[in-house]
Structure formats: structure tokens, C-alpha cells
Amino acid sequence: MVRINEIALRRDLIVVEDCAQSIGATVAGSPAGSFGHAAAFSFYPTKNVGAFGDGGMIVAKDPAIAARARRIRMYGEEKRYEAVEEGMNSRLDELQAALVAWGMERIDAWNARRNEIAMRYKESIKNSAVTLPTQVQDGREGVWHLFVVRVAERTRFIEHLKKEGVGSSIHYPAPVFEQSAYSFLNEDGSTLPITKEVVSKVVSLPLFPELTDKEVGLVVDAVNSYSQTVE
Ligand SMILES: Cc1ncc(COP(=O)(O)O)c(C=O)c1O
What whole-number distance in Å separates Cα of residue 19 and Cα of residue 32? Predict the structure, then answer.
């Protein structure tokens, strides 16, 4: 049993897994989405399986949770035009569903290609100014969604990549506690030292199944040719 389930059991809590980026990942052979009472997957276009627009999926072992999720997605209706609780319109339309179903048949191959690219980055990027991501082993088979490196002088690094023709992104430029929407948390980050430390350094390198080996090589060369400012 994963640790969070033990905690939940002791305290009579429900576990909802956020599987937005982990479709296809496993822990001790069991897939992400199978540990909690329910799990949510994202089909946002850039996710490992993406729709044309927004979309997602809830899975649940408990039929009561599944039935409630189905109700809420459709105005809270138990039967057509009989709303028994407040709900919303959150249906996945047929076109998105068709694209996602097509993606589901290909996800293993796409994840394998993402893994191949990530492994090549890990083996070939050799630059002391660039810290590579690490993976927890321990029976876990993750899937790569982003390949996030850490660099002290991030702006210079991004500019360098750009000059070399390599795009990059920042996931994410500001932590939740700094968003004005969450000012009510009264959090200054002192309880989140790791978040504070990494937020100014993270940079995501290109990682998607369609990248060619040649393009992966260009990314590696661009990262390896970056030099930090000499202080
Ligand atoms: C870990 C995680 N959870 C949830 C979400 C939100 O997904 P959606 O935009 O489909 O609601 C994201 C989106 O980036 C995510 O990365």
C-alpha cells in the first residue's frame, strides 16, 4: 500500500489522485490512478494524451463516487431532466473523446519515445551549470511529461537556447503561495524552502514523442555549449 493510503486509512480520509501528467506510470506494477478512491487525468492538448482542446477523465473504484462524478458532469441529473444535486456542464464532447480514444491506443508507444528522449538527455547532457532531474526508483516506473532542468542564471540560459534555435518553457514561474488568489493562505514561503529554491531555476527542455533524433541532438549540443557567467 502506498504511504498516502496508510495515512488516509488512519484518518478516514479519501484519496483523490492527481494523474494529470502520469498516464501510463506504475508503482510496483500498478498504474497511476489505481491507488486512491478516485483519480483525475488531464487531456489538455500538451499532456501525454491530449485532446484538441480541454478535456479530462475521472476514474473511481467505488461505484458511488463514479455515479456522483457522472451526475455532476451533467447538471446533477440522475435521469435526463431530473437534477438531484447541483452540477455543471462538463461533458467531453464526441470529437474530443474520439481523439483521446485514438491517443489511448498509442500512449505506450508515445511514453516509450518520451522515455528514450529523456534517457538521451540524461546520458548526453554534460554541463556543470545545468542540474538534471533525478528519478525515485523503488519499484516506480514514471512517465516523462516534462524534462525540467535547473540553472542558476535562467534568463541567460534561455537566451542561449533561443540563439541555438531551441525553445524552452518555465513550469511554473510563480508558486501557488505567491499568486494573489491565494494571499489568504498568509504563506511567505518559509515553510516551503525547496519551492523557493527551485522556482527561479527551473527550465523545461523540449520533450514530446515527435522530436526526431536529430532535434534531440541539437538540444543536447545547445545545452552543452552553454557557459555560466564567470564570477
Ligand atoms: C499536476 C497537474 N494537475 C492538474 C493540472 C490541471 O489539468 P487541467 O488543465 O486539465 O485541469 C495540471 C495541468 O498542467 C497538472 O500539471
Answer: 7
